[in-house]
Amino acid sequence: MLSPDQARDRAQDLVERARRAGADAADAVYGANASEGIQIRLGKLEDVERSESEHIALRVFLGQRSASIGSSDLSPQALDELAARAIDMARAAPEDRYAGLAPEDMLSHGPWQDLDLVDPSEPSPQTLRAMAEEAEDAARAVAGITNSDGASASAGSGVFALATSHGFAGGYGSTSHSVSVSVVGGEGAAKQRDHAWRSAHHGADLPSPAETGALAGERTVARLGSGRMKSGTMPVVFDPRVAGSLIGHLIGAMSGSAIARRSSFLLDKLGEQIFAPGTAIVEDPHTPRGLRSRMFDGEGLATVKRDLVADGKVTGWLLDSASARQLDMQPTGHAARNGGGAPSVSVGNVHLAAGPLSPAELMADIKDGVYVTELIGHGVNGVTGDYSRGATGFRIVNGELAGPVSEFTVAGNLLSMFAQLTPANDLEWYRAINVPTVRVDGMAIAGD
């Protein structure tokens, strides 16, 4: 794996080769990852994985024609062949009047702030195994746990670099550490399964493996004796581990490409009251050690902290250069590059601002409702906002959790759900999308 500086230089070299081969403009993206993971089950070693990958991708432009190509061979001869093939592909491509590099006058230039994404310590395989064993042991020690799907611990590192023919060159590295465990409780047809996991750039930011394991065991045992829900309309409270998916649907609908295609349920809703007044959803790509922190985007534009939603209103769309041209707007620094091809849209670290009430206070006046801890399936229509997903969780009776329930569906429309959404005060900061417990009134429940 190359260092960030070496990766930046290699991407610049490929761009220069493309220009010499006849490209009017070009950009190159380098990405590399290495990871090691240990999985154990019932105290025995189940699997050891070590993976390494390295890839460079080139995008060239001939007028309004473009083509993308990639390779894992970084030798000079291979890069020359890559550039020549990309030019040939571009000549055969259709014209796209929205294609092109980001505006030159908007490019970001270093030096950039150190976001502390690299942990210099690298755990040994023995350490990873000990972490996985500790997590599983803690989960299996919870009364009522009868089996295990296994526990794993992993660590990895990566490098990303981008260079363009009109003046951008940058790269950075990052590391990752994670622990996960899944266990089974109960016997026969009454068995239940749940899990817990944590991920961070720095190993020191993880809770202890025992804490993660105990949480998995407690979650599993809490689901034993699961009953069924009756159908009806009632308040739904979403646990923080699933509430973030609601904001994920909002972000998808804010994508410039979805707006340009007129395939978003937020179409024509810019500046309108979507959430309750006072609601704020904030993006901060510069959070030190944040899972989605980055100083520049996949086109070389600066990333900035911004309100995605302010006082309950969507403030703007998430635009790469192509969608910005389609909408006659400016790109917003939200381009992402995953290997080759044109950029897509992504965001930095996001959080929904906490409200004043505790989760208990948020539920206190609910006579009959449901607390959702797991969502199943992908029943969300991004065009209409219609929402229907399988769920498991707990009944809420007279403001209290009253027992586990499963095999029911929660349904509504995202615009109506957002309008009825109330956040609690238990916001935590270790996910890519950080959301407290949220309550949504008036959802349809399909059960027995």
Sheet of most strands: 6 strands, antiparallel
Order of helices and strands: HEEEHHEEEHEHHEEEHEEEHEEEHEEE
**End-to-end CA span:** 55 Å
Strand order of the largest sheet: 3-2-1-4-5-6
Helix content class: 10-25%
Task: Please state the average pLDDT score.
Answer: 97
Report on the architecture of this protein:
The chain is 22% helix and 37% strand. With 448 residues, the protein is α+β, with helices and mostly antiparallel strands. It has 2 domains: 4-221, PmbA/TldD fold (2-Layer Sandwich), CATH 3.30.2290.10; 226-448, no CATH class. A hairpin with a 2-residue loop joins β2 (44-62) and β3 (65-71). The longest helix has 17 residues, at 4-20. The relative contact order is 0.13. Residues 231-447 form the Metalloprotease TldD/E C-terminal domain.
Which terms would index this structure?
19 strands, 448 residues, single chain, Metalloprtase-TldD/E_N, PmbA/TldD fold, PmbA, 2 domains, Metallopeptidase TldD-related protein, Metalloprtase-TldD/E_cen_dom
Chain-wise SSE layout:
Layout: H1 4-20, E1 25-41, E2 44-62, E3 65-71, H2 76-92, H3 125-140, E4 145-164, E5 169-185, E6 192-200, H4 209-222, E7 232-238, H5 240-253, H6 256-260, E8 281-284, E9 306-310, E10 313-314, H7 321-326, E11 335-336, E12 344-345, E13 349-352, H8 359-363, E14 368-376, E15 386-397, E16 400-413, H9 414-419, E17 421-423, E18 433-434, E19 438-446
InterPro entries: Metalloprtase-TldD/E_C (IPR045569), Metalloprtase-TldD/E_cen_dom (IPR045570), Metalloprtase-TldD/E_N (IPR002510), PmbA (IPR047657), TldD/PmbA_N (IPR035068), TldD/PmbA_sf (IPR036059)
Family: Belongs to the peptidase U62 family.
Protein name: Metallopeptidase TldD-related protein
